[in-house]
Every structure is written in structure tokens, then in C-alpha cells.
């Protein structure tokens, strides 16, 4: 099955969405819950896995859904097909601030490894699988980078990067050390590994953790300044109902404000 060739346009700055234009009969697949709007004439169907030709038959669909479950994603994706006689548009948006990354898989060699919560949408026919990190250290301490999504195909895919997006083209042997959650995607030619920070004091008091991810070229990598996990941690820490501290508790009137609001 050939990939659907889609046109697109990205709107917004820090809260972006991507609008995909579909010719009659063309289709796009989106992560469950990512659809923003769609024009009349586009049908929507929820399927097991990614709906690609590689998942033909019941067994293939079950295996595709199981792979998505391993990455922490929904068992289902949604396929949007233009059933009309003219071009129609469907839009996809991320659930938290950041940038949308359009990647043309054919230009990248047909395969890309992506962080498990970064996939947003793609041309129908792009296969979504999983890629386990083979090194023992990466598997034990890689955290978010242990199980990656594997995108295969020759069409467009759209990823979401939290906060500010950084694209780096690494030369052969060039190494970059980053927080494991800040890795959005990288080409298979890039070596992904885990490195111990080296000093216990740094690990305990720097707030960066015991291990960092190392990315060694050649190849292209995409990084994000605000991973979803980091954003969630900050929100929980600032939420009194979740056991955190409210923002005014550091002020002189913090305790008085709690009394006036009826909080203990």
C-alpha cells in the first residue's frame, strides 16, 4: 500500500496545531484525542493499532495494538478519510504547549525513533511500532527513553515537542548529553545510550537525576525543553490537592489567604 501524499500547514506559536489537506480518497491517522477540527466530508473511524497495511488481519491488528500499549499509548488510533469530491482539511493539536515537528520519513531514510508520547499524526500508511533499547544500561536506567516509538514509511509524520524545539545534526562521533525526557526523536544512525553523572552530590542536589542520555552521531536529533513528565511534576508540586504547595504559601499573606479561603 502506497503512502498517502498529504499537504499541511502549521498554525500558532507556543500552542500549535497542524492542518492537513486531503485529496478525495486520501487519509491521515491521528493519535486518539488529537483531532482539533475537520471539515464536512471527512469520515472518522477508530481502529486498533495504526491502521497501516502492515497490520492486515486480526492478528496483525492485535499485535499493532499491543505494541502501542507497551509504549503507554492508547490501543486505538483514529483514521480520517476524505469521502468528498474536493479537497478537505482536518487539524490536529497537542495537549500542552510546544512545537509541532513535521518529518518526511522518506528524506530521513524511512525510519525514525520517537519518544513514546510525541506522536501526533501522520499520513495513512505510516507504520507505528516499538523500538527497545538493546543496551542493558539503557534498559535499566533509560526512563522515558527505554521504549521508543518506531515510525516506518515514506510519508509525513507530525511529532510534538514540549516547550522549545531544538534540531541538531550530529557529525560522526559527535556526542550530546541531555536529560532522558528531553529526547523527542532521532535517526536510527544515532547511538542512544545512558551515562552516569559521575558525582553523587551532583545527582542528589542538582535535580537532574543520576543518569543522562547520550546521543552520538552521525544523524539528526530533535530535543524538547519541556517534557510532558517535567510539566506534570511542576503542576503536581504546585497543587495543594495533590499534596503540593500553593503558589501563595511562600508569601507573608500565604497563611492568612488560606484562612480567608477556608483552607486548612
Automatic annotation (TrEMBL):
<dbReference type="Pfam" id="PF01987">
    <property type="entry name" value="AIM24"/>
</dbReference>
<dbReference type="InterPro" id="IPR002838">
    <property type="entry name" value="AIM24"/>
</dbReference>
<protein>
    <submittedName>
        <fullName>TIGR00266 family protein</fullName>
    </submittedName>
</protein>
<feature type="region of interest" description="Disordered">
    <location>
        <begin position="241"/>
        <end position="264"/>
    </location>
</feature>
<dbReference type="InterPro" id="IPR016031">
    <property type="entry name" value="Trp_RNA-bd_attenuator-like_dom"/>
</dbReference>
<dbReference type="InterPro" id="IPR036983">
    <property type="entry name" value="AIM24_sf"/>
</dbReference>
Amino acid at each position: 500500500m502506497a503512502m498517502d501524499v498529504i499537504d499541511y500547514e502549521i498554525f500558532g506559536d507556543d500552542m500549535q496545531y497542524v492542518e492537513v489537506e486531503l485529496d478525495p480518497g486520501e487519509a491521515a491517522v491521528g493519535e486518539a484525542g488529537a483531532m482539533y477540527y475537520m471539515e464536512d466530508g471527512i469520515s472518522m473511524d477508530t481502529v486498533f493499532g495504526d491502521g497501516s497495511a502492515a497490520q492486515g488481519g486480526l492478528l496483525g491488528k492485535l499485535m499493532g495494538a499491543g505494541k502501542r500499549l507497551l509504549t503507554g499509548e492508547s490501543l486505538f488510533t483514529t483514521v480520517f478519510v476524505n469521502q468528498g469530491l474536493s479537497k478537505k482539511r482536518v487539524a490536529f493539536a497537542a495537549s500542552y504547549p510546544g512545537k509541532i515537528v513535521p518529518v518526511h520519513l522518506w528524506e530521513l531514510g524511512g525510519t525514525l525513533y520517537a519518544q513514546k508520547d510525541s506522536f501526533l499524526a501522520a499520513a495513512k500508511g505510516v507504520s507505528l511500532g516499538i523500538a527497545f533499547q538493546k543496551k542493558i544500561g539503557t534498559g535499566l536506567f533509560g526512563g522515558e527513553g527505554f521504549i521508543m516509538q518506531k515510525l516506518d514509511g515514506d510519508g509525513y509524520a507530525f511529532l510534538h515537542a514540549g516547550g522549545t524545539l531544538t534540531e541538531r545534526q550530529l557529525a560522526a562521533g559527535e556526542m550530546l548529553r541531555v536529560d532522558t525526557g528531553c529526547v523527542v526523536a532521532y535517526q536510527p544512525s544515532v547511538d542512544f545510550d545512558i551515562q552516569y553523572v559521575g558525582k553523587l552530590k551532583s545527582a542528589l542536589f542538582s535535580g537532574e537525576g543520576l543518569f543522562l542520555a547520550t546521543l552520538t552521531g552521525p544523524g539528526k536529533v530533535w530535543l524538547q525543553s519541556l517534557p510532558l513528565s517535567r510539566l506534570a511534576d511542576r503542576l503536581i508540586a504546585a497543587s495543594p490537592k495533590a499534596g503540593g504547595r500553593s503558589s501563595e504559601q511562600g508569601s507573608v499573606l500565604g497563611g492568612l489567604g488560606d484562612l480567608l479561603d477556608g483552607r486548612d
